[in-house]
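Order emerges. For instance:

***
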Amino acid sequence: MEPENQTSISKFFLLGFSQDPEHQPILFGTFLSMFVVTVLGNLLIILAIISDSHLHTPMYFFLSNLSLTDICFTSTTIPKMLVNIQTQNRSITYAGCITQMYFFMVFGGMDTFLLAVMAYDRFVAICHPLHYLVIMNPRLCGLLVLVSWFISLMYSLMQSLLVLRLSFCTNWIIQLFYCELAQAITIACSDTLANHILLYIVTGLLGIVPFSGIVFSYTRIASSIMIIPSADGKYKAFSTCGSHLSVVSLFYGTGLGVYLSSGASPSSWKGMVASVIYTVVTPMLNPFIYSLRNRDIKRALQRLLRRILYVQC
């Protein structure tokens, strides 16, 4: 039986990685470990920030939101992939695919906006330190996060609604391990012009505008740091931005890899590796980057772990 359009299609097939039965336990163990580390690492960051009053500042407020977004971002793809590996069933329902696609875009967009907001926060802190608390007041911080959520939700909703109007004839195979928007558009057998226009224009804006804001912020930050007379002052200023710059480089570097690989063969190994780094590895490494390069987070985590061990004893 071959469905003719989206009203009769019941499922997609996520091709993912190797279908060799011998490789399945290794894949399952690897991605389960990465998922657990991602969730626990980001959760510890959130708990450390909540439990330590010294971290109740705009910088760590945005960091806690980033950690929460990373947990949700990873949770939209990995659990389904683990279930598919365990059950030897690579299918996902049509409704499940659209839902996964929607939330993947929501949390991916939130990551982009939060990194831009955090860059602006560092710009104000270093370039306008005397007015930092006045500018980055709780109302503005909350508003920036709410606006980021609103834009991400609306953009993802528009993309998902446009996918719902597409017809899928005989090709139901998505080459990745999750439902990816560009590949879903590619396998459709109806007119996808509107989908491609929205995909490239809006995605370009959502990528270019925040990234331009990050570049502008750090250009100004670098200029301000260079005029600081003392070496200790320069080191302290750079150290406050080091963690964020590392995360930005990792996120945009792997995201660019996914974007560039989309122009190659959809089943290319490079595209699969770039997708894994972007969707799994980056959220997993973020807590380590912030905890290893940030003294305040280190101390807060140590105090939190001591409290946990004390309660258990």
The CA atoms of residues 222 and 238 lie 8 Å apart. The beta strands are 11-14, 91-93, 173-174. Confidence is low (pLDDT under 50) at residues 1-7. DSSP finds eleven helices and three strands in the chain.
